[in-house]
């Protein structure tokens, strides 16, 4: 009996050590949140854009320019994605699943004095989502979950997520100064459209506008097909949508 208790104690100790190791591994390998992008250098101010995927180029089509407005067009290097907490075998680890897409398009329209945003639209091609986090051993590579995205988002019928921005007043900003904004609008994922408020940081440098931010949404409101309850891996339905976008403006 004493040997049995000793074996049980050793087993419990190994399990505890494994959990502690997994906690440390997860915390150390989770990618940080998306940040403001650096302003492109003059030589890279007009890079050749990646050829758009079908449907992306027909979404968020910019309106004709007007003398009293400035049109801000999305630039290469912009990206968006999501962060979601995962639970393995009922054990809450500090691991966060992170996937990002660099297939992003869209525009903003402001008044020529840059004090009022009249409209905006951002489209993200979810077919380009790629996991960038690392799962703790002995779990398989995080990119294995990418094969689930077509079913989770129903990409065959709904390949894009679209954020439509409502008009808003903008603070006066000096070149290079970061301003904090709450941007309101509607986000469409799959066949559902919901209102959202997005906390963001924006920085205007010359004719380049960089914005980064995030918002939390309930995946169940968008009918996303998350893993079933009996699955060994569970996903918290409250997911964070994040972005780092770069625009250039022209009168």
Short description:
By secondary structure, this protein is mostly beta strands. The chain has a single domain, classed as Lipid/polyisoprenoid-binding, YceI-like (Lipocalin, Beta Barrel).
Describe the model:
The termini are far apart. This protein has one domain: Beta Barrel (Lipocalin), CATH 2.40.128.110. The protein has two helices and 13 strands, in the order H-E-E-E-E-E-E-H-E-E-E-E-E-E-E. Strand 2 (79-88) and strand 3 (91-101) form a beta hairpin. The longest helix is centred in the N-terminal third of the chain and has 28 residues, at 2-29. It is elongated. With 251 residues, it is mainly β. Residues 1-25 and 41-49 have low confidence and may be disordered.
Low-confidence stretches: 1-25, 41-49
User: Total helix count?
Assistant: 2
Q: Can you give the helix content as a percent range? A: 10-25%
- Largest sheet, if any? 8 strands, antiparallel, barrel
Class by alpha and beta content: mainly beta
CATH class: Mainly Beta
Number of strands: 13
Q: Based on the coordinates given, report the CATH architecture.
A: Beta Barrel
Q: Spatial order of the strands in the main sheet?
A: 1-4-5-7-9-10-11-13
- For the termini, the CA-CA separation is 83 Å
Q: Into which percentage range does the β-strand content fall?
A: 35-45%
Radius of gyration: 22 Å
- Average pLDDT confidence is 82
| Overall 3D form | elongated
The topology string of helices and strands comes to HEEEEEEHEEEEEEE
Classify the fold: give the CATH topology.
Lipocalin
CATH homology superfamily name: Lipid/polyisoprenoid-binding, YceI-like
| Total discrete domains | 1
């Amino acid at each position: 009996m004493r040997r049995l208790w000793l074996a049980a104690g050793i087993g419990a100790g190994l399990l505890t050590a494994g959990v502690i190791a997994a906690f440390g591994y997860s915390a150390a390998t989770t990618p940080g949140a998306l940040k403001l992008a650096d302003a492109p250098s003059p030589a890279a101010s007009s890079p050749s854009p990646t050829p758009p995927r079908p449907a992306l180029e027909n979404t968020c089509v910019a309106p004709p320019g007007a003398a009293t407005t400035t049109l801000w067009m999305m630039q290469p290097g912009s990206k968006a994605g999501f962060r979601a907490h995962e639970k393995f075998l009922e054990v809450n680890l500090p691991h966060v699943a992170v996937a990002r897409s660099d297939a992003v398009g869209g525009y903003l329209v402001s008044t020529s004095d840059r004090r009022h945003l009249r409209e905006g639209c951002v489209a993200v091609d979810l077919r380009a989502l790629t996991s960038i986090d690392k799962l703790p051993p002995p779990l398989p590579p995080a990119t294995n979950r990418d094969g689930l995205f077509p079913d989770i988002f129903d990409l065959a019928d709904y390949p894009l997520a679209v954020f439509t921005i409502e008009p808003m007043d903008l603070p006066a900003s000096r070149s290079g100064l970061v301003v904090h904004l709450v941007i309101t609008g509607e986000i469409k994922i799959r066949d559902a459209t919901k209102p959202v408020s997005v906390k963001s940081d924006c920085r205007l440098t010359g004719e380049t506008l960089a914005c980064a931010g995030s918002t939390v949404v309930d995946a169940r409101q968008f009918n996303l097909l998350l893993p079933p309850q009996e699955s060994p891996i569970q996903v918290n339905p409250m997911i964070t949508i994040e972005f780092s976008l770069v625009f250039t403006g022209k009168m």
